Amino acid sequence: MKEQIKCIGCGAPIQTENKEELGYAPPSSLKRDVVICQRCFRLKHYNEIQDVSLTDDDYRKILSGIGDTDALVVKVVDIFDFNGSWLPGIHRYIGRNKLMLIGNKVDLLPKSVNKNRLTQWMSSMARELGVKAEEVHLVSAAKGTGLLDVAERIDELRGGRDVYVVGCTNVGKSTFINGLIKQLGTEQEDIITTSHFPGTTLNLIDIPLDEESALFDTPGIINHHQMAHFVSKDELKFIMPKKEIKPMVFQLNEAQTLFLGGLARFDYISGGRRSFVCHVSNDLNIHRTKLENADELYQNHLGDLLSPPSEPDNLPPLKRHEFTIKEKDTDVVISGLGWVTVKEPGVRIAAHAPEGVAVTLRPSLI
Ligand code: GDP
């Protein structure tokens, strides 16, 4: 039987078929005496972490392994997709370890957003999901904003312990770690070492912090409820803001509907003429119609007038969430897409989002 070749970096079995998966190496590299997977190659030569995804089962094993260690857990979430980028079950796996919560992509928020309110909301969401966040920080991994501060806080909070960075795919975990590496000033040669995790095929990549401890990158898990999975890679550009979002104000009469592409729908049911402020990607097409026509329009025009998605077959049916808004300035948050701020209280609305995508209320961030 042919012996399985393993990466000398992370120990993953080498495969040449799927670039997105663990252990990928180009076929030409198999001629060499020692083989290194593309992920380790990039880390070694470019100081760049690449994300790979794992089966849920392997991921659970890694998370429960972290629970058995004495470490600081740093969890990265996308502030536009808090629920969609939450790791289901993480509260069970953290054990007694401290958790630092990082909200990434802060560069996309309008300047008027109150950052303290955002971190307070993140803390309370985490608590609702069963986790106490020791500290919450906002960063832009892409722009480097807040990373120096976070590097210092990690060093303080870890108190000499190891650090595990966890997060779903697409939250910017790799960009975050690449940015941290720069802040930590870790020497390139030092970087590539590995640690074995019992029960998985994966050895985690670790980045030495000092003689005794290290920062571990864990692979991102796919959260199947993320809005991002319902559209093609090209369409993702329309729903994931690329630059600071510009709030859009709509004056609506009762019984009017706004479609956010074909991915979500906001019905204004009753409450007189009121203003609503949409905070979504500037590239997402917002279509206004009468509530009584909305079902038919969706049925006939999902995929053309109402897109993304242009291929609606993968989209789960929209689920309706009805609310009476009691407080002024309330955000109706559709995870992965953005939020609609309801300015005045006493209105009845319904938000429709693909089944599995969270729709929640929060006090306005502005
Ligand atoms: P990972 O799958 O969690 O490792 O995510 P990546 O680091 O590959 O980033 C996912 C996507 O988010 C990429 O398109 C990045 O360019 C983008 N991204 C990452 N960090 C930021 C950020 O701070 N701001 C913005 N606007 N985009 C970011």
UniProtKB/TrEMBL annotation:
* Record's protein name: Ribosome biogenesis GTPase YqeH
Instruction: Please list every transmembrane segment annotated in the UniProt record, as residue ranges.
Output: none
Which Pfam families does this one have? MMR_HSR1, YqeH-like_C
Provide a Gene Ontology MF annotation, just one.
GTP binding
Entries under Gene3D superfamilies matching the protein: P-loop containing nucleotide triphosphate hydrolases (3.40.50.300)
Superkingdom, taxonomy of origin: Bacteria
Domain CP-type G: where?
60-224
